[in-house]
Design brief:
Keywords: Plasmid. By secondary structure, this protein is mainly α. Helices cover 57% and strands 6% of the residues. Strands 1-2-3 form a 3-stranded antiparallel beta sheet, with no helix packed on it.
Length: 205
Amino acid sequence: MTSVYSVAPSISTENGMTTIDGLARSQRISRLRIPDESELPEDIQALVDRHHHENWVRALSLNPDTARRFTGHFEHLFAATGRRLPLQDRELIAVVVSATNGCGVCEIHHTRAFGDLLNDPGFARRVALDYHLADLSKRQRALADLAVKVTLSPKTISQADFEKLRDLELSDEELLEAVETASWFNHTNRVTISLGILPDDKFFS
């Protein structure tokens, strides 16, 4: 998941409260225990720091192997370069899937990232609210429709869905990555929703 911090925040804990950049908050950010970062393996401490101590990565750090698997796949799939499908298409899929599933953490993260990529945060928010009402290109709408089918009714996906996207000049390699991205976000949404992970306060300031 992307971060709105360009530098790591200032974090301290006292009397059961965590303070991030001077803003106090309850530590109940997940239905499971949040480990003390000082007790984590060094590579997991570095991983948490790399993702700016956000709630989702702190929650997953409870099981270092889970955190490694989760972030490893995410960081590779959402690398800015070197993938088949352009990053803005991957972010579009992340927003649409997360909005469809009602995953607040993933939706708020990736709506911000999508808006930053396009330099149009209002458009990204409209997509998150209801992509049918947003002024999407034919390519974007077809990718969003595919993402919703992967999410809600994968057995209804037909050859015609892929032919429609091929007609919009998407390659089979890009289509595979589109399905992978939609499927991955269904995974992340379900983990995040099940654990009751809260979005970080910084998204509401």
